[in-house]
Amino acid sequence: MKNILLLLLLPLITFAQKEVVIHITTDNYPAETKWELFSDSVSGTLLSAVNYGHYTSASTTYSDTVYISDTITNISWVIYDSYGDGIPGGNYYVSVCEDTIISYPVPTFTTGLLHNRVIPQCMPNPPPCVEATVIINLDQYQGETSWDITDTNGTVYASSVAYDGNPDYATIIIPVCIPKGPLEFNIYDTYGDGLNGALWQGQDGSYYLTQCNDTLIYGTDPAFGYDTAHVFVSDSCIPIYGCMDPAYMEFNHLAIVDTGFCNILKVFGCVDSAMYNYDSLANVMDMIDSCEYTLILHDLMGNGWVGSSLKLYANDTTEYSHMGGFNDYYYISLMAPRLLSVQFFISPQASLTTIECGFTLINPEGDTLISIEPPFIQPLFVYSAITNCGNICIERVFGCPDTLACNYTAGVNTATSCTYPVQYYDCNNQCIVDTDNDGVCNENEIIGCQDPLFYNYNILATDPGLCIPFIYGCIDATQFNYDANANTSNESCEPYIYGCMDSTAFNYNLLANTDNGTCDSIIDGCTNPVALNYNPLANTDDGSCINPVYGCIDSTMFNYNSLANVDNNSCISYFYGCTNPTALNYNPLANTEDFSCIDYIYGCTDSTAFNYDSTANTNNNSCVVVVEGCMDQSAYNYNNTVNVHDSISCLYSASCTSGPGNPYWLNDPCYAWVISVDDYCCDNEWDTICQLTYDYCEGTWSGPLLSRTNAEKKLLKITDILGRPTKEIKNQLLFYIYDDGSINKKIIKH
What we know:
Layout: E1 4-6, E2 17-25, E3 33-39, E4 45-50, E5 61-69, E6 74-81, E7 91-96, E8 99-104, E9 112-118, E10 129-137, E11 145-150, E12 156-159, E13 171-179, E14 181-189, E15 206-211, E16 214-218, E17 226-233, E18 241-242, E19 257-258, E20 268-269, E21 284-285, E22 290-299, E23 309-314, E24 317-322, E25 329-337, E26 339-345, H1 353-356, E27 357-362, E28 368-372, E29 380-386, E30 398-399, E31 414-415, E32 447-448, E33 463-464, E34 472-473, E35 488-489, E36 498-499, E37 514-515, E38 524-525, E39 540-541, E40 550-551, E41 566-567, E42 576-577, E43 592-593, E44 602-603, E45 618-619, E46 628-629, E47 644-645, E48 665-666, E49 672-676, E50 691-695, E51 700-702, E52 715-719, E53 733-738, E54 743-747
Parallel strand pairs: 1-13, 18-19, 20-21, 30-31, 32-33, 34-35, 36-37, 38-39, 40-41, 42-43, 44-45, 46-47
Antiparallel strand pairs: 2-5, 2-7, 3-4, 3-6, 6-9, 7-8, 10-13, 10-15, 11-12, 11-14, 14-17, 15-16, 22-25, 22-27, 23-24, 23-26, 26-29, 27-28, 48-49, 49-50, 50-51, 52-53, 53-54
């Protein structure tokens, strides 16, 4: 039956820390923002960071709290934006002990913006206490197990002693109060086998760290000597989001909930572009897995370790083991992985080991990783060490790698220019083969004519050969007079001139030297293509061409052209009429005079006018209207404006004659004559409205207004049959045109 023991362990904790709060108000793209906090006081140590994807909500204010040691006096805080436009519309500020030391309300930056600040003096406040639970399932060797919880600086916030006296396989549940933030949970086993009870025919144990019912640490591997787990304790039950895959660059070791923001896969390799094996695709420097360590064993008594032993482990594999048997100091050089576990077992029979034995482990750089000096009292030591053996980058070795080159260099990995000997020469510029010892290598010997007076003289010849004399001529095979025997041009070449070489032919070419079969016979004829008798077959003009003369070739036409031989459709018929433009009857269409022209006679052509001229045929607007009236100055009704005397209208007597119906009656000796104003007023039906009273004393008319229904029409003009204005002419058809639009046709017989 399993025993369960509940143990409350609340350690007394003294906090010597300051609270740093990073406030971020996100823009519309929160996942583009991250930050890092460094200690300038401790060689640029990374204190805290959030990666891309940590912020998930737009236009939201986030606050992240980091606790730093009082010993840190300067910090560097860097904010990044993956897109390079900052956080427009957002802002950020950093406070220490509630005092703002960094503030940018409207930040615009590219990929990274660095802020360096001095930490102000303030009263340290302990971080809030966060409740968590440690659960230990013991094996049958419960007295070997203990644990503690520390921060990254080694400050212990909770711990236990060995669980001696507890039942085998007991479950220990320990509530703890620890600060929020990054912490380390460390568990120890003094024997070095962890909670591996099954190895000793028992049951394996396990260990847990929980918060908010979430398991932060779960120890699945009971075989440990010393184990460390990194955790992040939050101040609430809201989990920390981020990339939890360590294979990616965005990996956040503080995250407990994977957001999936794992974008850039880690590619290990040499990232130094100056190195020989630089990998442009790598983004993480790869390290050398195996290092050369120096292990020094020493014994103050000079009798070795007397049964005690030391073992080096890597990945649960023994890399080195030593059981003593030496005097004073014992130096061992060994190759081992970068991560080592060192177990120092002290034999129970060797009680003196703790006061006389020790060891030192030194890495390749000469740094002491572990040093144990006597005296010590613990029966078993378990240590862990990790070293940086260096990266995998290989220094460039420049030189020529070609063994055939004169400047060959062994061990080259980066080739530079190689220097080679001239062909057939060695690196000392000496001929490899020179049979005649003339300083010219056999392969470079040239046999030829060495006499400059001959055609084939070769200035480069090193040994004499056959000489050929000069033969002058045309040496161009494309020319007419090419000489196959000539070897030297005398500038006599003549080109081929192709053409007809028959002097009797039409196209005989005097310059031709090569007949091309193109000769044509002479054909006489008219060769002008515009001539009437053009002969397209003729190649020699015989002067017979007849040029075309265009015009009217009809002799009955007005414009007949006796010289024309080609009719151009321009013939015009005869049209008779008056061709004098100054004549009254001028006809612009006539082209032949018929002697009918009539001269213009100007005058009054109105037969009703006072000055009518019967000989005039053209009205000159001189007509005077006929005005009839009494021109007798002795009459009562004398009128000086009339031009035709009407004696009947003159009134001389002032005797009173009365009576209605009389056209001329006097009501009063002085004035009131009642007269008929026109021919139509004598009708009885118009008597009352057509009569006016004339006052001879005053010279005025009075009475009803005239109302004429049958007005007399007025003659406007007289025209002949051609529409020409004319006066009255006897025995000729005339047209009388009136002002009411009527036209009368008249022939006045003589």
